[in-house]
Design a protein that fits this description.
The chain has a single domain, classed as Jelly Rolls. The protein is 30% helix and 18% strand. This is Oxidoreductase.
Length: 380
């Protein structure tokens, strides 16, 4: 039987030329919306074969198991309550995602951060032009799709990015419209991140400083995402299916919704009904060092006619210094035995990042590329 021909939306036009034409406007996806487009350009249309792999865009239901909503009781030092939080976080990390409330960060700071992301992206184009770049070494990087020229499709999203820790940018390198709140917000992220790493360490049965001593979260990268309303939301995504490459991600989202997780081969909405809540994702490297005790999870953002959707992601990862290329991460010895051999090769954060950049365009899991055979546990 002759197989049916594959339909590929990327055949029949010069994709690279159209990518370049879009990029050179420096207006991003918002510029398309401002221009009144009613049909999305071909560079944003999903390849049908990938769309089928993802499943239908409208199949998300209420989670049968429920995304854990954990009350951190930030101002309560009751040891019994802390023990309950540690237990809840440990169970949630087996799924790979949970939400945190009562975390101690003022709602005024959270609201101002979301407002400033929206305000930056909605400035006049001329004001934003000075920050539009594809040079990732800049203190502040604004563009549409950081991997615009390297992936087989384009996300319906604009983003600004800044490395905020351990060495924050000089204030004058940040846009005035969001400068003050970015610096304040990132300090709160450091504190909440430190607390989370303590709790996760304890949930693993380790000393509370174990993960911080391994330099898992000294680095922090802040991303301010802007997802404009989309005229054809069924044809594109705001963010492709992916896992996060670091250790933990703290995501703040507004009320619009659109964030989904992949659980047991079905997509489910992540509720956006708890103002001030942070969605916490387990990253690939936390899965690696826990030898699959804790799991990273696929997530994506669907496009919507409503909007704009605003979110702020804080990636907690090793700092980009000498440790970036030299410190090795491997399954922690407490989780390795003859009965439970190591599952992964050791890697540096840079090594894993390079592998991710090579492979993620296929939307396939990255960790399996570091899988070990059971005969490879002799050094443990």
């Amino acid at each position: 039987m002759v197989p049916a021909p594959r339909i590929d939306v990327f055949l029949g036009y010069d994709r690279e030329r159209e990518l370049k034409s879009f990029d050179e406007t420096k207006k991003g996806v918002k510029g398309l919306v401002d221009a009144g487009v009613t049909k999305i350009p071909r560079i944003f249309v999903r390849n049908p074969s990938i769309k089928m792999m993802d499943g239908r865009f409208d199949n998300a239901k209420d989670l049968k198991f429920g995304i854990p909503l954990i009350d951190f009781n930030a101002n309560n030092e009751n040891p019994t309550l802390r023990s309950d939080v540690v237990k809840e976080v440990g169970e949630a990390c087996k799924i790979g995602v949970f939400q945190v409330i009562n975390h101690g960060i003022p709602l005024s700071v959270i609201d101002k951060m979301l407002e400033s992301v929206k305000a930056f992206h909605e400035q006049g184009t001329e004001t934003k032009l000075q920050y539009y770049t594809r040079d990732s070494k800049k203190s502040f990087v604004y563009n549409s799709n950081s991997s615009l020229y390297h992936l087989p499709r384009t996300d319906w999203r604009d983003t600004f990015t800044s490395v905020m820790a351990p060495f924050p940018p000089e204030p004058e390198d940040l846009p005035p419209i969001c400068r003050e709140i970015m610096l304040e917000y990132s300090e709160h992220m450091k504190k909440l991140g430190a607390t989370l790493f303590e709790v996760v360490s304890e949930a693993l049965g380790l000393e509370k400083n174990c993960l911080s001593d391994m330099e898992c979260g000294q680095g922090q990268v802040l991303l301010g995402h802007y997802y404009p309303p989309c005229p054809e939301p069924d044809l594109t995504l705001g963010a492709l299916k992916h896992t996060d490459i670091g250790f933990l991600t703290l995501l703040l989202q507004d009320h619009i919704g659109g964030l989904q997780i992949l659980h047991e081969n079905e997509w489910f909405d992540v509720p956006s009904t708890h103002p001030g809540a942070f969605v916490v994702f387990v990253g690939d490297l936390l899965q690696l060092i826990t030898n699959d005790k804790f799991k990273s999870i696929y997530h994506r953002v669907i496009s919507k006619r409503e909007g704009p959707r605003i979110s702020v992601a804080s990636f907690l990862r090793p700092q980009v210094t000498e440790a970036y290329t030299s410190r090795l991460y491997r399954p922690i010895k407490e989780f390795v035995s003859k009965e439970n051999p190591p599952l992964y090769k050791e890697t540096t954060f840079k090594g894993y990042t390079d592998l991710y950049l090579q492979k993620w365009q296929d939307e396939t899991p990255i960790l399996p590329y570091l899988k070990l055979s059971q005969e490879s546990d002799k050094d443990y």
